[in-house]
Amino acid sequence: MESSASLELAKHILLMFGIILAVGTFSGLIARLVRVPDVVVFLLLGMLLGPSVFGLVNIKADSAINQLILIFGSSYILFDGGASIRLKVLKEVWITIVVIATIGVLITGAITGAAAYYFLGVPVIVALLLGAVLASTDPATLVPIFKQIKIKERVAQTVMSESAFNDAMGAILTFTVLGVAMGAGEFSAGEAVMDLLKQSLLGILIGGILGYMAAFLISHQKFGFLAEYAPVVTLMAVIGAYMGADGLHSSGFMAVFVFGIMLGNQESLGFKRIHHDEKILEDFIMTTALIMRMFIFILLGAQVDFGLMNQYLFAGVAVVVVFMLVARPVTVFLCALPDRRAKWSLKEMLFMCWTRETGVIPGALAGMLVGMKAPGAQIIASVTFIAILMTILIQATTTKWLAKKLDLLAEE
Predict the structure, then answer these.
(1) Domain that holds residue 265
(2) CA–CA separation, 321 and 43 (whole Å)
(3) pLDDT (0 to 100) of residue 189
């Protein structure tokens, strides 16, 4: 009986996977026809497939299979984003990236927390916890958007790099505030800074080492004996980079992003890629990243709790409006304007103000708080879902329009 139950569960999960792939393929065609990023259509159709509407896809947010999809899918999308980053661009804008991914997260969290305290009427510590959850941008959302919409190189790569590097800061800030909220300790700026440095440097080191090893085994003229297995090497290395960094209590997402940067800049490392092998690898990465986007955003849409959102709808929308129209612009101008090396124009900063979608990472943090029964966790989860829907449906769909208005579209 137990074996039969396991078999039926496996069949049920397999059926849902088939539905996701079929709907995802159809969604991709719709997205192309209406000229919007595919993550927007994936999210909307996921909401229709979820338990609240048709009930065709029902994978719990705290289930092992969902966590596996989120971790690997986000890691692979982030690796894909890192592979499109060019080192020559990072040399020009690295100051802005570092400041906006660290101090910027604190500024966004503080302003959003103040809005939550005012509109939701929650205790200060709960408001700050909500601000911390929403403070980091989401690479799983931003990377696909910038892969589909060709924005001028340095702007696109700055925003993608920020989204990769600030997840560590967002997680540290969230769990530091949580420790205070649950009476487990007091905030220590020194400890938080040291923790951030440790997570960041270890993540960069692990990603850099594995990225160089992968490039060596794939592209070295004499020792590149794994060239024909390059797609498999990328899968192994993405898993290895994330798990290695996570095992050392550092940022797994930062490790896979740096791994992608190393693999995408093989020429700068002294390796030469054969065009045929390079094309095979690029096609594999593109297809795998597309499948990961389908699963992540259809599942994310299917897990939206409409009943929970309705409890705090109007106050939550007000918080997210402040988050989008006040917190983000203030953060960008305070962090990017002083960078004389990058010399950001007003149009570039206005565009960066608008591109900071919320998605998988804040959603995962909110889910963890609910599981830990943190103070105000249900309110935080509700407003987080509202932020995910508003930023993806409003900001992602208008990214290309705004880039065109600001003359920031790259020439094809």
Answers:
(1) 70-285+317-405
(2) 20
(3) 60
